[in-house]
Amino acid sequence: MGTMKSATYVLLAALFAAGIVLPAFAADPLPSWNDTAPKKAIVAFIKQVTRQGSANFVPVAERIATFDNDGTLWAEQPMYFQAFFVFDRVKHLAPQHPEWKSKEPFASVLRGDVKSALAGGEHALGEMLMATHACMTTEEFEKIVSDWIATAKHPATKRPYTEMVFQPMLELLAYLRANGFKTYIVSGGGIEFMRPWAEKVYGIPPEQVIGSSIKTKFELRDGKPVLVRLPELNFVDDKDGKPVGIQQHIGRRPIAAFGNSDGDLQMMQWTAAGKGARFCLYVHHTDAEREWAYDRQSHLGHLDKGLDEAKARGWTVVSMKDDWKIIYPHQKR
Amino acid sequence: MGTMKSATYVLLAALFAAGIVLPAFAADPLPSWNDTAPKKAIVAFIKQVTRQGSANFVPVAERIATFDNDGTLWAEQPMYFQAFFVFDRVKHLAPQHPEWKSKEPFASVLRGDVKSALAGGEHALGEMLMATHACMTTEEFEKIVSDWIATAKHPATKRPYTEMVFQPMLELLAYLRANGFKTYIVSGGGIEFMRPWAEKVYGIPPEQVIGSSIKTKFELRDGKPVLVRLPELNFVDDKDGKPVGIQQHIGRRPIAAFGNSDGDLQMMQWTAAGKGARFCLYVHHTDAEREWAYDRQSHLGHLDKGLDEAKARGWTVVSMKDDWKIIYPHQKR
Questions:
Q1: Residue A310 belongs to what H/E stretch?
Q2: How far apart are CA A198 and CA A70, in angstroms?
Q3: B213 bridge partner residues
Q4: Chain A residues close to B191, C-beta within 8 Å
Q5: Residue A159: CB partners within 8 Å, gap ≥ 6?
Q6: Which residue among A113, A211, A257, B145 is least crowded, i.e. fewest CB within 10 A of its CB?
Q7: Which residues are B70's β-sheet partners?
Q8: Which residue, among A85, A333, A271, A251, has the nearest Cα to B184 in the 3D structure?
Q9: C-alpha distance from B46 to closest chain A C-alpha (Å)
């Protein structure tokens, strides 16, 4: 090898060893995205905020991107996946609660009648949430979630829930991080329900997961410190709550936000209202064949006002049917 | 240049350009620390958890270190510095509140009688906190704090509060970060009181600041989204609250914790109870000449049980007088 060649080799080897991500000048960072408007908008935004000297350049420390989870990073039909967790836990805990056989909404769940169980609305759901999420330590709950997510299967696809994540969004997360972004989950789901698997599945560490929570209490049990999960709501990270959760956890405004429902609208408004370049993107569930199609009339993942506001303000709307080559990682492009 | 020399040069240049921190094999990372037991314990701990193949090796993602602020990273006498902020704000806002002239605790503050103002205890302090911290947007509050901290001076030293940070602790923060640690503040002080200056002063970004908070509310004001600070307590990040705040914000247990009072004891117990190598350190205020000396009997920064537990459990206790060459950055070593 000549000097120049050898030097180049060493340089590349050093960068590689140091884990430096070189700009993807050749490879497509978003291979599961069609070359339609949303992909072009994403690439243009990233270039704009990362190019030194650009009028819209944003320092790395301020490159914050927030993602809703249910319906944005993974599927949410026919129910939020956390609801399946609740029902599975009710069944699992039933032997310790003989009274549940005649007590709603538990009795309906145990009979396999989810519809009746949910007929009690928020109150019924709240009761089941507390019965399955509280009165144990944070470590116990983490183990319960980890064990469940490792084995539970979706009723329709028969796949693990962690395989029902959206491949194009995984690529987007990686693309943002390769460009210096810190990626956060900002979900109405339970913060401690997501943390045990979010790092492995999305590359998002626990400290970058924001979600709804119940209160916890510090206790010394036989001299051993524990955090006990209390049957008391602490924070609802949905709608108006999302900007509140973002401020509480991050303390600065995101420059990019990603969602799929009206529950994400306030997060987008908050993101869009900052100075400089901003990026807001709605995932629109338009693919009845490969996933589910729902929006303005849906009982969950309701997307109505958000769709109007996205149109009025020029936010990016992804049609899953038209803009994504594949939906799930196991599918072939 | 020969091939090898040239290659080495390119390698170093590449690492330098990439901002890679090489192990400080020559320079002392803690130059303001005397070569006494605490410094040796810190260095030994860092080596233990960062050396590949070590029985106590900890992956980078789990290298979490939490620091109390008042009395640990900066001074806290004769009052928490945030209390000076409160009093300054009361004086500043007095023209808009003519009723304060005859209403305690405000009347005492306006007469310059801090002792009487504080005689009302927690209730009086809470009233002043809400009057000066709430009923404005998060952005308005951030500007008020930034403006205050840029100009306010400590009554005894006449120095800006941000110059009353402990130089040895700044070195420790940098040393931990150079070894892959994420450094957090976990303080009883207001989270939004610390965030505007913590990044510049400590190198700790807003998302790594945990503190006490009041509730906020999302609102659209003439179509512009704002977060309004409400006169309602949200969370007290002190004592039992510290492990709770750590779990809420970080979602994993620190492997190192640093404090100076009994208010930090639960954080240390929580940290120490994890598996593998753990490090807990108390800053003991023993230097009446260069700073202040106080511990078991002090009205603030009360360190009593913590000192006993540190001794019983072999935690590191820093004597500011004996273990630190200098206290503040402006002093010469």
A1: helix A305-313
A2: 12
A3: B235
A4: 248, 251
A5: A153, A328, A330
A6: A113
A7: B74
A8: A251
A9: 20
Q: With CA atoms as reference, report the closest residue to B183 among B260, B88, B256, B279.
A: B256
**Is the distance from CB of A253 to CB of A274 less than 8 angstroms?**
yes
Q: What is the rounded distance in angstroms from the CA atom of residue A75 to the CA atom of residue A173?
A: 16
Tokens of B245: 């705040």
Which of B:171-190 have CB within 8 Å of A? 182
- The answer to whether B266 contacts A225, with C-beta atoms less than 8 Å apart, is yes
Q: A–B: how many Cβ contacts below 8 A?
A: 112
Whether residue A247 and residue B224 make contact (CB cut-off 8 A), yes or no, is: no
Contacts of B195 in chain A (CB under 8 A): 251
The 3-state secondary structure of chain B, one letter per residue: CCHHHHHHHHHHHHHHHCCCCCCCCCCCCCCCECCCHHHHHHHHHHHHHHCCCCCCCCCHHHCEEEECCECCCECCCCCCHHHHHHHHHHHHHHHHCHHHHHCCCHHHHHCCCHHHHHCCHHHHHHHHHHHHHCCEEHHHHHHHHHHHHHHCECCCCCCEHHHCECHHHHHHHHHHHHCCCEEEEEEEEEHHHHHHHHHHHHCCCHHHEEEEEEEEEEEEECCEEEEEEEEEEEECCCCCHHHHHHHHHCCCCCCEEEECCHHHHHHHHHHHCCCCCCEEEEEECECCCCCCECCCCCCCCCCCHHHHHHHHHCCEEEEHHHHECCCCCCCCC
Question: Mean pLDDT lowest for which of A32-36, A121-125, A236-240, B264-268?
Answer: A121-125
d(CA A190, CA A142): 12
Q: What is the pLDDT of residues B198-253, one digit of tens each?
A: 999 999 999 999 999 999 999 999 999 999 999 999 999 999 999 999 999 999 99
Query: Is the interface score ipTM higher than 0.95?
Result: no
In whole angstroms, give the CA distance from residue A22 to residue A24.
6
- What's A77's DSSP letter? -
Which pLDDT band, with edges at 50, 70 and 90, does B45 fall under? very high
Q: Write out the two tokens for B236.
A: 């007290």
